[in-house]
Automatic annotation (TrEMBL):
It holds the Pfam family CH. One of its GO terms (biological process) is actin filament organization. GO terms for molecular function: actin filament binding. Residues 52-166 form the Calponin-homology (CH) domain. This is Calponin-homology (CH) domain-containing protein. PROSITE patterns: CH. It comes from the Eukaryota. PANTHER family: CALPONIN (PTHR47385), MUSCLE-SPECIFIC PROTEIN 20 (PTHR47385:SF24). GO terms for cellular component: actin cytoskeleton. The lineage of its organism: Eukaryota, Metazoa, Spiralia, Lophotrochozoa, Annelida. It comes from Capitella teleta.
């Protein structure tokens, strides 16, 4: 029996009887004050990336790279991305493909990440492998950003890391290449995407 937490809803999977949904008490206090303002800023940053289409392009690229080795991400909606990447297995398979194409060794990871400890270890393995591949340490993210992922703002660091990984992969000539959008420009009123 495996349990997967989806926000406040708990999905319990039993191979003999299918899926069951139940509710779980929310044990965390709501954010307030500075923490709430910081969370809103992160959510706004994610919304900006979403308007630029960054999550759509990342999901399309990851699905193309992992085609035939892992089920595709069903959507570029932030909760779907979070659930798809949460255990770190997809990230590790993804970085293995990039590293092997660059002539580097594959990384070892736990393919069955049923516990939080194993999932967070897989995410840590991905971050180390990404840095070894050429992504700057500043562009990586904390395991909790992805594993807990209670809001879309927490996912912005993951999106930024994968976006940077796409740039590095393109510089190494990896195919399929990552189709990125040029960075936005800022005028006095707002950010705008370059066409």
């Amino acid at each position: 029996m495996a349990m997967i937490l989806l926000g406040r809803k708990k999905c319990i999977e039993d191979e003999r009887e299918g899926l069951y949904y139940g509710f779980e008490m929310d044990v965390r206090a709501r954010k307030a004050g500075i923490a709430l303002k910081a969370q809103k800023k992160l959510d706004d940053r994610y919304n900006e990336e979403e308007k630029l289409g960054t999550p759509d392009r990342l999901v399309a690229w990851m699905n193309a790279v992992l085609e035939g080795t892992h089920a595709p991400c069903p959507s570029s909606q932030w909760r779907k991305i979070h659930f798809y990447l949460r255990d770190g297995v997809v990230l590790c398979k993804f970085i293995c493909k990039l590293r092997v194409a660059a002539g580097m060794d594959s990384v070892k990871f736990m393919a069955n990440a049923h516990t939080p400890f194993v999932a967070m270890e897989n995410i840590s393995v991905f971050n180390k492998a990404a840095m070894d591949y050429g992504v700057e340490e500043e562009a990586t993210f904390q395991s909790a950003d992805l594993y807990e992922g209670q809001t879309k703002g927490a996912l912005i660091n993951v999106i930024n890391c994968l976006n940077r990984l796409g740039f590095v992969a393109n510089s190494k000539g990896f195919t399929p290449s990552y189709e990125f959008m040029p960075p936005p420009t800022h005028d006095d009123d707002h950010w705008t995407a370059k066409a």
